[in-house]
Amino acid sequence: MSRATIEDILELPAPERVAIAQEIWESVFEDSDALPLTAAQRDELEKRWLEFQNNPEEGESWDDVKASLRSE
């Protein structure tokens, strides 16, 4: 991408920049095989998954976390 294109994007209104950023992020997510996990990341994910399977009632729901953050 040329620098001029980036500069053009940065001049757009914030909502348009957010939409572009979201499209870029979604394209990265769709091509997630291009960004493989490290061994440490895989190990951490496996550890967390096993913890969840062993104790699914522990932790907080996403709705509870969002509500807590919004009340701060």
Description:
This protein has two domains: 36 residues; 36 residues, no CATH class. The radius of gyration is 19 Å and the shape is flat. It is built from four helices and no strands. With 72 residues, it is mainly α. It starts with a helix and ends with a helix.
Q: Largest sheet, described in full? A: none
The parts where pLDDT drops under 50 for at least 5 residues are none
Strand content: under 5%
- Overall average pLDDT: 91
How large is the count of helical segments?
Answer: 4
Short description:
This protein is an all-alpha fold. Helix content is 71%, strand content 0%. The longest helix has 17 residues, at 14-30.
Which key features would you list for this structure?
72 residues, mainly alpha, flat
Topology:
Layout: H1 3-10, H2 14-30, H3 39-54, H4 62-71
